[in-house]
């Protein structure tokens, strides 16, 4: 074929193709079903579920990142000889919790309820279809259309937090095998049972309209009480300073970094508990209240401690912010912003008094976990009963101080008392069992050379502080400085 005629043939073919498309395209378009109200509604629902799934996963990632915050906070507040142990315990807790939560915990928490007290199915997620969705969406105990696997991950991040709170109070002298065991037991039973009571739609406290939006009682009160029982049964760290004199922190920079990470992660903890983005006003309120609570707690703690010591104390400021965050977690969706400030201010004062109280009881809580999480978890839960806004509460009842009577507060008190009694009894049984089999406190040899060296053969600063120096420090303090034990602290 002549090369000059090729462009002509191409133009003719293109023209024919254009004519065919012009003739038949309208028919193809008309053959498609026109959109209907029903199809548009289905598309909108699918889009909303996709957006909500993204939101819940992202906030779940933030909650999981709080494990880093707890690790850095504990590493900073402990003595050098126990930092490696604390870091490993925080890390391994997440690994243990995910497997136990998958096998047992999630089913007990959100499975089909037996009398409102415990879940009876969904163990190992075995009853879920392959796409992770029940016919009505979500899982039996959660009123949500989100994929069950998404909800599972979000709730796992909360479960990991509860056991991590406990490691802080028990740091520096807990047997590592014991830590693995109690982390597994908490993920399997003590934590998910409380979750079932409060967050399962058929839980007995949920049916009574007990208010705990994101976990002041479910996560923090449970973690705090478990922690203080463990610390009590363990006894003090080796050589800790005389009671009333807080052992010095190992690295305040790490402690500050950890607290900042925790504050940041709380924006997953509280706003993420909306489980969706359909109500942006609620997300905004929760976020604002969370921030106000943290700021107010930090300020009241640092000013109150300055009044007592005439020093601007970083550690109390950090714990004050955490106390405010813990306190506002229950009511962040149920109170007005002014009430969030009041809750935060109260939390900052309570954490200072709480640390003093635990010291007076001669219980060694290295990071003030009970004062931060236990005391303020209970305070924040009860605060809803005093300051609940009727436009925001689940049952549209106001708190006692807003003219709503005793109804809401009465349920909050009942819930806090029930959760406390169960958690304390369970913790004594769990830790008492570990003590009986010799896996609660580490071997006494670890008290001499440091738990890091004994359990892990490592130190966080190997080129700065050798193991031999721990022994020298012990001998020095035995001869020069009396205290609870031989060493200054951990």
From TrEMBL:
<comment type="similarity">
    <text>Belongs to the ammonia transporter channel (TC 1.A.11.2) family.</text>
</comment>
<feature type="signal peptide">
    <location>
        <begin position="1"/>
        <end position="31"/>
    </location>
</feature>
<feature type="transmembrane region" description="Helical">
    <location>
        <begin position="219"/>
        <end position="236"/>
    </location>
</feature>
<dbReference type="GO" id="GO:0097272">
    <property type="term" value="P:ammonium homeostasis"/>
</dbReference>
<feature type="domain" description="Ammonium transporter AmtB-like">
    <location>
        <begin position="55"/>
        <end position="459"/>
    </location>
</feature>
<feature type="transmembrane region" description="Helical">
    <location>
        <begin position="148"/>
        <end position="168"/>
    </location>
</feature>
<keyword id="KW-0732">Signal</keyword>
<feature type="transmembrane region" description="Helical">
    <location>
        <begin position="248"/>
        <end position="269"/>
    </location>
</feature>
<dbReference type="Pfam" id="PF00909">
    <property type="entry name" value="Ammonium_transp"/>
</dbReference>
<dbReference type="InterPro" id="IPR029020">
    <property type="entry name" value="Ammonium/urea_transptr"/>
</dbReference>
<feature type="transmembrane region" description="Helical">
    <location>
        <begin position="94"/>
        <end position="118"/>
    </location>
</feature>
<dbReference type="InterPro" id="IPR001905">
    <property type="entry name" value="Ammonium_transpt"/>
</dbReference>
<keyword id="KW-0472">Membrane</keyword>
<protein>
    <recommendedName>
        <fullName>Ammonium transporter</fullName>
    </recommendedName>
</protein>
<feature type="transmembrane region" description="Helical">
    <location>
        <begin position="342"/>
        <end position="358"/>
    </location>
</feature>
<feature type="transmembrane region" description="Helical">
    <location>
        <begin position="281"/>
        <end position="304"/>
    </location>
</feature>
<keyword id="KW-0812">Transmembrane</keyword>
<dbReference type="GO" id="GO:0008519">
    <property type="term" value="F:ammonium channel activity"/>
</dbReference>
<feature type="transmembrane region" description="Helical">
    <location>
        <begin position="180"/>
        <end position="199"/>
    </location>
</feature>
<feature type="transmembrane region" description="Helical">
    <location>
        <begin position="316"/>
        <end position="336"/>
    </location>
</feature>
<feature type="transmembrane region" description="Helical">
    <location>
        <begin position="370"/>
        <end position="388"/>
    </location>
</feature>
<keyword id="KW-0813">Transport</keyword>
<dbReference type="InterPro" id="IPR024041">
    <property type="entry name" value="NH4_transpt_AmtB-like_dom"/>
</dbReference>
<dbReference type="GO" id="GO:0005886">
    <property type="term" value="C:plasma membrane"/>
</dbReference>
<feature type="transmembrane region" description="Helical">
    <location>
        <begin position="408"/>
        <end position="431"/>
    </location>
</feature>
<keyword id="KW-1133">Transmembrane helix</keyword>
<keyword id="KW-0924">Ammonia transport</keyword>
<dbReference type="InterPro" id="IPR018047">
    <property type="entry name" value="Ammonium_transpt_CS"/>
</dbReference>
<feature type="transmembrane region" description="Helical">
    <location>
        <begin position="55"/>
        <end position="73"/>
    </location>
</feature>
């Amino acid at each position: 074929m002549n090369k000059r005629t090729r462009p002509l043939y191409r133009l003719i073919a293109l023209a024919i193709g254009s004519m065919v498309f012009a003739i038949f395209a309208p028919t193809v378009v008309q053959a498609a079903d026109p959109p209907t109200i029903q199809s548009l509604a289905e598309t909108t629902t699918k889009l909303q579920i996709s957006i909500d799934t993204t939101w819940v996963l992202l906030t779940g990632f933030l909650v999981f990142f709080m494990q880093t915050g707890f690790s850095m906070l504990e590493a900073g507040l402990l003595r050098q000889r126990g930092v490696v142990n604390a870091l490993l315990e925080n890390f391994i807790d997440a690994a243990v919790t995910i497997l136990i939560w998958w096998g047992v915990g999630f089913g007990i928490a959100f499975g089909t309820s037996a009398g409102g007290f415990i879940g009876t199915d969904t163990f190992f997620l075995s009853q879920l279809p392959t796409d992770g969705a029940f016919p009505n969406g979500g899982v039996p105990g959660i009123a949500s259309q989100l994929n069950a696997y998404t909800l599972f991950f979000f709730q796992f991040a909360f479960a990991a937090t509860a056991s991590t709170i406990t490691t802080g109070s028990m740091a520096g002298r807990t047997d590592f095998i014991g830590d693995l065991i109690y982390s597994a037991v908490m993920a399997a039973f003590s934590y998910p049972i409380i979750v079932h009571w409060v967050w399962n739609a058929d839980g007995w406290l949920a049916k009574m309209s007990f208010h705990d939006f994101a976990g002041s009682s479910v996560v923090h009160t449970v973690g705090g009480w478990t922690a203080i029982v463990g610390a009590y049964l363990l006894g003090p760290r080796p050589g800790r300073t005389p009671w009333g004199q807080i052992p010095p922190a190992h690295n305040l920079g790490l402690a500050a970094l950890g607290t900042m990470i925790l504050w940041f992660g709380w924006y997953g903890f509280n706003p993420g508990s909306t489980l969706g983005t359909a109500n942006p006003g609620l997300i905004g309120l929760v976020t604002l209240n969370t921030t106000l609570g943290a700021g107010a707690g930090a300020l009241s703690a640092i000013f109150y401690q300055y009044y007592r010591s005439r020093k601007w104390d970083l550690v109390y400021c950090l714990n004050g912010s955490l106390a405010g965050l813990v306190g506002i977690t229950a009511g962040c969706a149920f109170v007005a912003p002014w009430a969030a400030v009041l809750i935060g201010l109260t939390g900052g004062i309570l954490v200072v008094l709480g640390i003093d109280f635990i010291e007076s009881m001669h219980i060694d809580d290295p990071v003030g976990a009970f004062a931060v999480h236990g005391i303020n978890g209970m305070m924040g839960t009860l605060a809803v009963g005093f300051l609940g806004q009727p436009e925001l509460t689940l049952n549209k009842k106001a708190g006692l101080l807003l003219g709503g009577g005793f109804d809401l507060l009465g349920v909050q008190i009942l819930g806090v008392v029930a959760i406390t009694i169960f958690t304390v009894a369970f913790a004594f049984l769990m830790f008492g069992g570990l003590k009986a089999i010799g896996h609660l406190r580490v071997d006494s040899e670890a008290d001499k050379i440091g738990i890091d060296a004994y359990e892990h053969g490592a130190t966080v600063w190997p080129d700065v502080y050798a193991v031999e120096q721990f022994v020298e420090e012990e001998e020095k303090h035995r001869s020069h400085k009396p205290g609870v034990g031989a060493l200054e602290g951990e």
